[in-house]
């Protein structure tokens, strides 16, 4: 008897889950536990650094080892009487939101490993020692840590494949499709968390370049465009180098600082986007110029090219 295609995929899910739980065991019970033990002895790095590296890996490990893997195993053993996995995956899906925290922390974790490996030779030695063990299969800690980041997309692919192979009349179709929707939402949730973190990091970097003027620092702002611009002075027919930051609610007209201690720019003027008008100027002496007029004042600006001018106006 040929195994039905959908059963092969369900078995692949079980096998990859088993391998994944082994990987989580390595991360949580070996790397995290041993590094934590050394940190408590005050020999390698501060305890909070180890906690920051491994984020919520313990919760993820416990969930997969104690709940999801046993449920899958039980189901595959009873496959002949109950050939479906959609309901089991539906139980799993809400818990996958835990991954948001781990995924969001991943880049920071890898950076911490690099920084502390240079700072603390004993920390580096312990990691190298664990990596030499057979269980690590010649792979680095960073490589193993990537596994949880890739796990949700893997579920998504396997489940899509499973649904494709299901016979049209299969009783599992409804459940499996619902499970796929749930996993898709979780993946989106995790990607949205990363995007939001990146947005806030970029915003913070901009505020630092502006010298953290407290009336500008606001986490809800969105940076739309920034770049150098020439300010045209009609009085003496000359231009001077300025820099613009355009946010969703304001335009900051800045002067680059000559001595860059702390801030990179000095804010000369804030213009509200509300009620602002922008139009192109046909000036033969100064090409690519445009006029920005707001409640506060009007600026005559020159871009470096036609494309740049259009981008600013847009």
From TrEMBL:
SMART domains per UniProt: PH, RhoGEF
Entry-linked SUPFAM superfamilies: DBL homology domain (DH-domain), PH domain-like
Superkingdom of origin: Eukaryota
GO BP terms in the entry: cytoskeleton organization; filopodium assembly
Gene3D superfamilies xref list: Dbl homology (DH) domain, Pleckstrin-homology domain (PH domain)/Phosphotyrosine-binding domain (PTB)
GO molecular function: guanyl-nucleotide exchange factor activity; zinc ion binding
Localisation: Cytoplasm, Cytoskeleton
InterPro entries xref list: DBL_dom_sf, DH_dom, FYVE_RhoGEF_PH, PH-like_dom_sf, PH_domain, SOS1_NGEF_PH
Protein name, UniProt field: FGD2 protein
Organism expressing this protein natively: Jacana jacana (Wattled jacana)
Taxonomic lineage of the native organism: Eukaryota, Metazoa, Chordata, Craniata, Vertebrata
Gene: Fgd2_0
